[in-house]
Amino acid sequence: MSFCNLVSMMQLKDWLKKNQKNLEYLVAGLLSLCIFFLSTPFGFITILSVDVLKSVIEAEATILGLFGIVVAYLLTSYDNRLDRLDQQKFDLRLKYQSVTEGIEEIEAKMTKIRTRKKDIVWAVIVGSGSLVFSFFLFIATLGIVSMDTNAIEISTKMDIAFKISPIASMFLFLGIFAMFLMLFRIGKEPEY
Questions:
Q1: With contact defined as beta carbons under 8 Å apart, do 117 and 78 qualify?
Q2: Nearest one of 184, 98, 171 to 135, comparing CA atoms
Q3: If you placed Cys at 39, which of 9, 50, 135, 169 could pair as Cys (CB 3.0 to 4.6 Å)?
Q4: Is 24 part of any domain?
């Protein structure tokens, strides 16, 4: 490897490190756009049958339950880590009256964990909001599709369903994507 290649690799690594958050947002935005385009046909398919809509609603209720379990595990994990570090800090203060270096290190770890917890709470809000919104849109679509044809014309009913169902499926897939990101994050968490 030549010196120029080594220098350019180091510059690239520095640039990636500085812009990591922006790249994560860009990738999340691009994946969300892909999710929209991939979920639109699914939304159109769901309104073809009342049974399909019922199945999607049941599946989404199951996904909401799984999402809740993942969120509970992740938030409890952060709280347990903070409690352990707080106990370590307390033990250091009891054992050594003038220890500041170890306490500062523990407080730095606690700050990192609190920051990650705050970030994950925003992901939880977006993911759960997407899933709940999708759930209610699918229920509304089911109500519209299964409505008596004497109350509303079939073409009007299908127009409304064709507008609501792709949006509902987009939010469903966005919520599932958020859940998988949380599962991925659980595996990447450093142990303290």
A1: yes
A2: 171
A3: 169
A4: no
User: Is 85 part of a structural domain of the chain?
Assistant: no
pLDDT at 154: 74
- pTM for this model (two decimals): 0.74
Residues 115-121: contacts with CB under 8 Å, at least 24 apart: 116/78, 116/189, 117/75, 117/78, 117/82, 120/74, 120/75, 120/78, 120/182, 120/185, 121/75
Q: How many domains does the chain have?
A: 1
Instruction: For residue 90, tell me if it sits in a domain.
Output: no
Q: Report the C-alpha dihedral over residues 166, 122, 176, 70, rounded to 10 degrees.
A: -150
> Using an 8 Å Cβ cutoff, are 185 and 59 in contact?
no
Count CB neighbours of 166 within 10 A: 20
| C-beta atoms surrounding 10 within 10 Å | 10
- Please give the full DSSP string across 59-112, using - where no structure is assigned: HHHHHHHHHHHHHHHHHHHHHHHHHHHHHHHHHHHHH-TT--HHHHHHHHHHHH
Q: What is the DSSP string of 30-43?
A: HHHHHHHHHHHHHH
List the domain range (segments joined by +) for residue 133: 33-75+114-188
Query: Cβ distance 56 to 46 under 8 Å?
Result: yes
Q: Report if residue 119 sits inside a domain.
A: yes
Stretches in the chain below the pLDDT threshold 50:
none
